[in-house]
Amino acid sequence: MSSCNMFTNWHCFTLWWCYVLQFSKPITSEEGKDLGLVDAVVPSDELLKASRQWALDIIERRKPWIRSLHRIDKLGSLPEVVAIIKTARQQAKQSFKNLPQHQACLDVIEEGIIHGGYHGILKESRVFKDLISTDTSKGLVHAFFSQRAASKVPNVSDIGLKPRKIMKVAVIGGGLMGSGIATSLILSDIYVILKEINSKYLLKGIKAIEGNVRGLDVDMVIEAVVENIHLKQKIFADNEKACSRHCILASNTSTIDLNIIGEKTKSQDRIIGAHFFSPAHVMPLLEIVRTEKTSAQVILDLMTVGKIIKKVPVVVGNCTGFAVNRAFFPYSQSAHLLLHLGVDIFRIDQLISNFGIPLGPFQLQDVAGYGVVVATTEIFSISFPDRTFQSPLVPLLLKNGRNGKNNGKGYYIYEKGSKPKPDPSVLPIIEESRRTINIMPGGSLYLLRTMKLFR
Ligand SMILES: NC(=O)c1ccc[n+]([C@@H]2O[C@H](COP(=O)([O-])OP(=O)(O)OC[C@H]3O[C@@H](n4cnc5c(N)ncnc54)[C@H](O)[C@@H]3O)[C@@H](O)[C@H]2O)c1
């Protein structure tokens, strides 16, 4: 049961919650009671009766009226509090560029602290009214409910299936993604076998994986080798032979249609996409890709593993690029088109990060690695030959000994202990790429139309 002031603000609080979620820490009713914010905790069916009795007790002076709104005993001195708010403002400005709600929350808290709780509540109601109708608010509320809806998958989560226990997982390929996925699993106490080889020992390695996988009888294999259709097909066929019949066969592919990956197996019902995002042990999204043949049990099992390792599993359909890269690829292509039309790449990245996206498209390519950029472009160009812009730039960068963050040299220079810096020595390579594409002045519209990207 809440104190009167808390109670009257409850509706407001529910929506406000969407705003403050990234910034604050939820507490349980019991913790609220210990902190003196809540008078009592009662079962929901007794709430009304207990509230009435409590109100009567206050009126009859049998109980004190504790108004949490006016409590200041947990606050430090005013200068201390003002300094804390100032630091919080700077942190919010850095982490949540262009999002108004964090500063607004701090404005409200500051008002309450300086002028008293009642003024804080009045300010909250004014600020709330202003913010609730903004596009940012609508977007955040949508994201909040979508995230919750993502765990409800028709014919999977509502047919009485129980998730099976996934105790051991094999990760094949220990590069950027494989090592991140393995870290995520290990951090959640899931036993991991990580297999890695170089190309020279490819065949020998596959045999060794087979042996290990069979020996340890894992519940799921997540393949995270380079984005190569034939290699993935071979690994899936080998895993099918090596693993038990219940083992889930998952791929971390960014783009390749899972029906193609599983083409050489007879286990289509347990083939599924487990698409993590880089860095895999940090990014919350887990895109789970189901084909028409993936069984409900396998989908549910992977959703459960996703939750255990503290990801947000979102089940999507199967096609080239799935949901995320299908949307993301044109964004990245547009950046390359702009570059070839003469726009400065560092300006593009700066504008995007000013907008609030942590990394611009070029710096993101540096971080993801050029191998995956080249491979995904190839996969998209096979599926959509008339809609893919084959930028010659990334192959040129590779030819010039650059591989992004991986070897410290990409569009930016990466040195230990310092922030990435734009690298001016990349500009002649960009010029060479522009000459290869040879867009004439005024040819921009022609190029875009030719690409059929903008009709
Ligand atoms: N880089 C990203 O941001 C990103 C994001 C999401 C998904 N992915 C996908 O994840 C997969 C791996 O990408 P990555 O960026 O980690 O690549 P990577 O090049 O960093 O790592 C791939 C690793 O696989 C190893 N390998 C190659 N053949 C193997 C085999 N037969 N057996 C075992 N290991 C083998 C390689 O030695 C290498 O270390 C790709 O399918 C990619 O599309 C990448």
From TrEMBL:
Catalytic activity: a 4-saturated-(3S)-3-hydroxyacyl-CoA = a (3E)-enoyl-CoA + H2O; a (3S)-3-hydroxyacyl-CoA = a (2E)-enoyl-CoA + H2O
Coiled-coil intervals: none
Domain of life: Eukaryota
Entry-linked InterPro entries: 3-OHacyl-CoA_DH_CS (IPR006180), 3-OHacyl-CoA_DH_NAD-bd (IPR006176), 3HC_DH_C (IPR006108), 6-PGluconate_DH-like_C_sf (IPR008927), ClpP/crotonase-like_dom_sf (IPR029045), NAD(P)-bd_dom_sf (IPR036291)
UniProt keywords, alphabetically: Isomerase, Lyase, Membrane, Multifunctional enzyme, NAD, Oxidoreductase, Signal, Transmembrane, Transmembrane helix
Signal sequence, renumbered to the chain: 1-29
Gene behind this protein: AIM1
Location of the 3-hydroxyacyl-CoA dehydrogenase C-terminal domain: 321-414
GO terms, molecular function: enoyl-CoA hydratase activity; isomerase activity; oxidoreductase activity
Residue ranges annotated for the 3-hydroxyacyl-CoA dehydrogenase NAD binding domain, each copy included: 168-213, 217-318
Source taxonomy: Eukaryota, Viridiplantae, Streptophyta, Embryophyta, Tracheophyta
The protein's name: Altered inheritance of mitochondria protein 1
Family according to the record: In the central section; belongs to the 3-hydroxyacyl-CoA dehydrogenase family.
Transmembrane segments: 169-194
